[in-house]
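Minimal example, chain plus manganese (II) ion.
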Amino acid sequence: MNTRKLQQVIRSIPTSDGAGVKLRRSLGQAPALRLDPFLMLDEFASENADDYIAGFPDHPHRGFETVTYMLDGHMLHQDHLGNRGDLRRGGAQWMTAGRGIIHSEIPQQQSGRMRGFQLWINLPAREKMKAAAYRDVQPEEIPLVTMAGGVEVRVIAGALLVDGENVLGPIQGISTEPLFLDVRLPAGASFSNPLATGHNAFVYPYEGQLSIGAADEASVLAAHQAGVLSAGERVEIRADDGAAAFLLLAARPLLEPVVQYGPFVMNSREEIEQAIADYQNGRLV
Ligand code: MN
C-alpha cells in the first residue's frame, strides 16, 4: 500500500478576525494556499481573555460550510434562523451556509483558556444556494477510540477503521465526504489508517511535532503548520519526539473554480457580486 508523504508545509501566520480575535491561519492565508475543498483553517488558542473576548459579532456567509471544533472554552452561537447553540470543550458545530446565513459566535467566559479550530469547507456549485443548515455536536456524540499504543482518536466526521470495522463520526452525508479526526499520540506511538484514494488530505499538529510517512521516508512536521499529504492509500504518523496531538482532514476535491470575497465563496465573480448585492439589500438569507 502506498503511504502518503508530506508534500507541502503551510506555516500558520498570526492574524485576527471577527472583533479582534487573535488566531493562527494556515490554509486560506492566501488564495494559492488552499487545499480543495478546504478553504481555510484557523486555530485559536489563548489564556488571555483580551485575545478572544469580543468574539465574532453578526456576520454573513454564503456558498460553503464552517466547522468549529472546541478543545477548551465556551462559545455561544446564534443565527438568523433562531438556532442557538452552546459550544463547549470537546464539542463541534457544523454549519452549512448554503445561500446565506447571518450569525454570531461569542465567548461565554471572562477568563481562562479558549482553544479550538474553525475550518471552512467548500460546497459544490449545485449546493451553494441550498438552504442553510446547522448542527451542534455534543462531546458525547463524538466516538473516542483508543487504538494500539494508547493512541486516542476522536471521530468528528467520516470513518476510522478499527479492527476491520468502521467507526463513524456523527457528521455523515456531506457530498465532499470529509474525514475529520482529532488524534492524540503518546510519545513514541504511531497512528496509521487507510485514507480514500483521490481525496486531498492534510495534517495539523497543535501540540508537539510529527513524523509523517513510512519510517524509511518520513518527514518532520512542527506544531502549528498544515502539512499537505501526497496522494496514496494510507497515512502513517508517528510521535518520535514526544507526545503530540493533531487534526487529520481529508475530503473529495471539487475541481471547480473558487472565487472568494471575505465570507462569500462562489464559482464566479458575477455570483460574488450577487452575494454582495443580496447582503446589502437584505436578501442574502
Ligand atoms: Mn462565521
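Residues 56, 59, 61, 66, 103, 105 surround manganese (II) ion (CB under 6 Å). Residues 269-280 form the longest helix (12 residues).
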